[in-house]
Specification:
The structure is a single chain. With 387 residues, this protein is an alpha/beta fold. It has a single domain (4-24, 61-75, 123-381), classed as TIM Barrel. 47% of the residues lie in helices and 14% in strands. It contains 17 helices and eleven strands. The protein is globular, with a radius of gyration of 21 Å. It starts with a helix and ends in a 6-residue tail after the last helix.
């Protein structure tokens, strides 16, 4: 009997496993909810608690075969959670000072999520980042390029290592937080500035992209050394609804190919999550060397129908199915079942298919995802067996 990791590898190789692999993509707050915790656990419970929640959330849902894990270090928690007599406290280990935590109530914990982002110093305003205006700014304004050995020694791979230890025997572990144009956008001063630069003389854009790529190549090697199976590239703001395919092929394609080549050189697979109109680029995505194209629902009038992708690319590229974000939040089970069966019947007949999701947040009930997973397993079992 094959396990989840083997099924993913069969599908990404263009084959048809005995069961459609399921690859959920979840934000931290959904992981917390599905793992049986609350945001205090994630924010203050420490490294091991975060790993515990990630593993529990993955194991909760039937048929899940691919898990994405993020960066995390053991020694990154200056405060810790203390529980006494049914009360929860936030203690500063340096001073011993304690602050009682108030109950958060039911999900989706929107106010807490916003406060969490502020506390972590998340840059909500793109213009707040240091801007690269000339080549001379590259080293000063952009993240340092750590060697793979230093990346590991600083602990950046520790969460991936822990998840690999817990789940890696039977689950495909994807990791990394790579994103060529999303990262370049911040380096260039924001979305509008980056798009204008991409529409004109692209010399500086390409220099910024290459600097980010050089960092990625070291991180790919590091993650491969600790046992990751695949690397996760975010392709946001790159779709044909925003960037002409001609510009994409000239500026972004060579960097995507270099990313894929590095993944394969280190024995891992390359996964691209594409948010935008990628149908006109699907042959290019395959030519770059990606093993899995993770498709999101259409959001600006373009089509993300897996059947159209299948007609366009055949089995030369493994693709994902997806369910409508609103249907998942509303727990609209008839609509979810309809989408699952329609996409499996139209795009999964010959394999090279994995069922994914749009990004899951705590707005989605875990029971809804349980239902979706079971519908995928049921619909997949009705397909003709592989020869």
């Amino acid at each position: 009997m094959t396990n989840g990791k083997q099924r993913v590898l069969q599908a990404t190789a263009g084959g048809k496993p005995d069961q459609i692999p399921i690859a959920l993509s979840a934000d931290w707050d959904y992981v917390v909810r599905a793992g049986g915790g609350d945001p205090y656990d994630w924010m203050y419970g420490g490294f091991d608690r975060r790993v515990e929640l990630c593993v529990a959330a993955h194991r909760r849902h039937p048929g899940t075969a691919l898990m994405r894990t993020g960066q995390g270090r053991r020694a990154d928690e200056p405060r810790r959670l203390v529980e006494e007599n049914g009360q929860r406290w936030l203690m500063d280990p340096g001073t011993g000072r304690r602050e009682q935590l108030v109950p958060l109530g039911d999900p989706p914990w929107t106010e807490f999520a916003q406060a969490y982002a502020r506390e972590l110093g998340v840059v909500m305003d793109e213009s707040a980042a240091e801007v690269v205006e000339t080549r001379g700014d590259l080293e000063r304004c952009m993240p340092p390029i750590l060697s793979s050995a230093e990346f590991i020694s600083r602990g950046y791979t520790e969460r991936t290592e822990a998840v690999v230890d817990a789940l890696g025997a039977d689950t495909f572990i994807a990791t990394g937080y790579f994103g060529l144009f999303p990262d370049a956008r911040f380096s260039l001063g924001g979305f509008e500035e980056a798009m204008m630069a991409l529409a004109g003389d692209t010399t500086l854009v390409e220099a910024v992209l290459d600097r980010h790529l050089a960092r990625y190549l070291e991180e790919i090697e590091a993650y491969a050394q600790v046992g990751a199976d695949g690397m996760w590239m975010r392709a946001y703001y790159e779709g044909a609804d925003l960037v002409s395919p001609r510009t994409w092929r000239r500026v972004l394609f060579p960097r995507h190919k270099a990313f894929c080549d590095a993944c394969h050189r280190h024995g891992t697979q390359a996964i691209i999550w594409f948010l935008g109109d990628c149908l006109p680029l699907v042959e290019d995505i395959a030519a770059a060397g990606y093993d899995l194209l993770y498709v999101e629902q259409g959001r600006r009038g373009y089509s993300s129908d897996p059947a159209e992708f299948r007609r366009r690319i055949g089995n030369d590229l493994c693709i994902t199915g997806w369910t409508w974000e609103h249907d998942m939040i509303a727990d609209d089970r008839p609509a979810i079942a309809h989408t699952v069966r329609e996409q499996i019947e139209s795009a999964a007949q010959d394999g090279a298919f994995i069922y994914g999701t749009t990004f899951l947040t705590a707005e989605v009930r875990p029971e809804t995802v349980d239902f979706m997973c079971q519908e995928i397993l049921n619909a997949g079992s009705a397909l003709p067996s592989a020869a």
